[in-house]
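note to self: dont lose this again. the chain is below, predicted strucutre after it. 476 aa total, dont forget to put it in the shared folder this time
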Amino acid sequence: MIRAGTTLGALLLAALALAGPAAAAPSPTPVPSGYPATPEDYAISAREAVRVADTDPKIVAREAELDRGDAFSASVEAKPVRVWEVGYFLNGEKVNLVVVDGATGAVTQSWTGAAVDWPMARGKPGQFGHILNSAWVWAALALVFVAGLLDFRRLRKWVHLDLLVLLGFGVSEAYFNAAEIGTSVPLVYPLLAYLLARMLWIGFRGHGLDGTAGEGLRPSAPAWLLTAAIAALIVLRLTANLADSGVIDVGYAGVIGADKITHAEPLYDDSFPEDNPTGDTYGPANYFAYVPFEAALPWSGSWDDLPAAHAAAIFFDLATIAGLFALGLALARRRRSADPDPRPPPGPPLPDGRVRRRLSRWFPDREGNALGLVLVFAWVAYPFTAYATQSNSNDELIAALVVWSLVLFASPIARGALLAVAAAAKFAPLPAASPAVSSRRSPPASARPLRPAPPPSAAWPAEARGRPRSPRAAAP
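---
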């Protein structure tokens, strides 16, 4: 009898010992919206995902900071890439996001701050730029950009500092790719302030040719070398776009809008798909610009490779390149027409014959072509213009329209129409470019003509006097 009682007591103690850890296990953070069903290819349920996410150090630290009256809850959602996204809310505000692998049950990402609601701030590999995010590729482009535009005969020029400032945005980009958004964003402001001050100085005071810091670009690189570099860089841009680039939501929105237009569906009725619900944020001109490409390469209905977006981005880029070269011709022609004592532009003597004389206007060592070459080189060598192409966004559509409005500056109707189309795609060109194109009359013949220099994504207006010292010198 005593032996039976001892055995029974031992069994009870063992049962209590086994039940202790289970009773002590904390319950998962409450999910007011409920737990969704577990997809077929997931190995863990939504409840298990929340329990795993609760063990993340950032969540543990968050719970330790809670006051008695704080309301702390969670939400859980299955994503197409086989992960559970567990969001945490403090008094109704989303403060944490934990990503749990649906197959292994391991925490793969944990975010706070801006990255909670903004996936672009999470430093995802390949999110933007793709191959351009390689330090070697970025450094090589930066070196080509500076080397091709430097005047090695006179290095102490203010405009050379401008080139370095333009490349300085790459430091912010490096922090952005590392998900250090709190460092990345503040680094941009001093650079933007510097560029604004420089453009105001150039716009109101112009460049000088007396050897001061205000003198413009006079690249040492010969025209033939710039031409070869441009050809190589364009081929590289096209290859990178076709072989290793992605389409962000901006380009995706353009394709969706074009599909709606071709099917006579309204654009602004909140009917964009769930994977791009805010795609109707742009003006109608943006979506109409994508129509030819979507008609040739129809949208499949999902966010796939989107060949129409690739084709549109490439076309917009090439249109900008052509516009910059044409702008060089237009500015040189305008400068010669304003010169009270015109001299023949540098270059080889014109060949005989009407056809050959026409063809000779396109020789790369003539003044206008040299200026156009410098503008095109600055565009194709600057890493951030390739960054826009690699993201297949609509930014280069705006660049092309603004550049061609400068090419057709002599025609108020043409420049106004192009600027209006640009503003009907995105609002930014209207306040930025309208002061430059809204003049009711042309400047007097003695006025110094506008000349461009390379800003972060296009050519900014600048002024310069005099004729370049050689056919290789073509930009301010």
